[in-house]
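Moderator note: this is an archived Q&A kept for reference. The question asked for a predicted structure of one protein chain; the sequence and the answer are reproduced below.
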Amino acid sequence: MTWKLALAGCGNVGTALLEILHRKGAELATRHGFDCRVCLVTDPLRGVALNPEGLDLGTLLEKLRNGGTFNGLPEGLGSFESLLARSGANLFADATPTNLTTGEPGLTHLRVALSRGVHATTSSKGPLAVAAEELESLAKRHGALFRYEGAVMSGTPLVALIRENLAGCAVTKVEGILNGTTNYMLTRMEEGLSYGEALAEAQGKGYAEANPTADVEGWDAAVKVAILSRVVSGVALPVDRVDRTGISALTPEDLRTAKEEGRRIRLVATLIPDPESPVAKVAPERLPLDHPLASVRGATNAATLHTDHLGPITITGPGAGRTETGQALLTDLLAIARLTREEN
């Protein structure tokens, strides 16, 4: 079967996905049975490229490398819904920027795709923070698959680990370092930097936004805990139900004192799933040094899953990055293709 992919968002992550598909297209078809043509790419800055027979990825990527628009490529006009219909896409990848308040623009794109029965994946937390239950319902009603691996730990496959590799296990607790920005800052504060110095350094490295509130006040991690509640137990958990404390009140002295006590402070996201009343929180915790999360330094993410059959399992890896998140989208696309084959 030939898959026809529509992509919304051609910044770092969307471009990385296109690069992977261009570089590994033949290998993906041979090893994974994933014969994929990119038929539609939309981006608010670069325009629209549309060809139902498949765009020339080499030419498209050359334009992206030169910072240009899609002028000269087959173009399309109209609403996203009409463009998607004309492309003939049966797969959709959303790599648009995250807005935790509105979920846009990815939320509208996903609503359109899933309503048409187009299988979809997103790397954006925004649509899930605002309307996860609605999107899951849309997908089920229209016979589409909906995946979001990249929304929690970028390319580190935590969601797939829970859904597939730990199938049959009960996950009784999740503890995670789910925000790389704050973990980087805490690492540097442990080394003597003030909160302000650590934040400025994180912003200089591109880890933190100019307005770092979502990271340092725990909102980003709280959204990820809410997403994990659905993955672990199928329970929808509104973000405002997550008890949240950030790191802005911490000082280097707090971290030094913890170290003297044989502990290390980390911003830990905790989920104890329960169908009736799940417990979810994000807060700085003084972890003993032998705790698997205590040794996680820098912008790295990690999660410890407590299970009934296997005990605690810890997965560690990058929680951000253009190629890493592009890989997360690809992981979802391959999973959708595999699951579709199995259904047929």
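Archived answer notes: The chain has a mean pLDDT of 94.
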